[in-house]
Design goal:
Blueprint: H1 10-51, E1 58-59, E2 62-63, H2 64-69, H3 78-86, H4 88-97, H5 104-112, H6 118-123, H7 130-144, H8 146-149, H9 152-161, H10 167-180, H11 188-197, H12 201-210, H13 218-225, H14 232-244, H15 248-257, H16 263-275
Amino acid sequence: MGCIREPETAASRGSCSSLGGTEQLAMRLREFIFITLMALAVIVIGSAICLCPPAQPRYQNKKLQAQFDQLQGGTRDPVIQTLRDIGPDAVAFLAHQMKRKDSFIKDRYVALWPKLPALVKSRFKQPLSAAAIRVKAVEALRYMGPSFTGSDIGLAALRIALDHPDIHLRSIAEGALGDLGPQAKAAVPALIKCVSGCTNINGVWALGRIGPDAKAALPILESKMRQETGRERVYAAGAVWKIGGENAEARMVVMKALEDPDPHVRIDAKNVLGESPDMTSR
């Protein structure tokens, strides 16, 4: 004989609802406890950092880290001029920041920050991930200009950045090396490696800026110049011209790009001609 199921009553439904509400309350309580504990951990870690900061040079009675934290970006940012005034110590500081790595605790801190109570947030600055700090540092170094990126420490930091898996970091470093022109010739092997793997306009442009000292890059640049489409081929043609001298094929690629339906390609062609006006002469 089968089991007889008792009819569901309002009382039983109320009991289930009460049970569900209890479980939700317990979950919220656990979440609150977790966030509270993490907030306390943040306070302890933050206090420890504030109490035991690493020794740093000062400028106008402000530590380099404080100057860096205020940086918004752009060559006109007053912090960039301050970094220039500080000089080699600022370059060394930025080179160190470009090597930053997140710890397990820092990763959790960054992820937890949006969930923290407003009171806790008001007491501490919002944390940046190591990736964001690295990019901010290499941008600042480039904004400081060739007088600083061309120093031994600056060049070494940029060359190390070329081996980093972060494509954004590499791209900015390539641009900074391109700004240096022939002075960056020691970075040619690393730049060739960068442009060989994928589309890389900044790397191609940097090799062209280095000029004849980048002759080892001609094979890969010529292959990119012969691509059917894409913006990279225009900069590759410009680089081939700068590195190897007059080249009819390179000239044809750039001239054809001036009539490309893609406005970005037309702008690229004008940029290339702006750097190599002799390409227009016959």
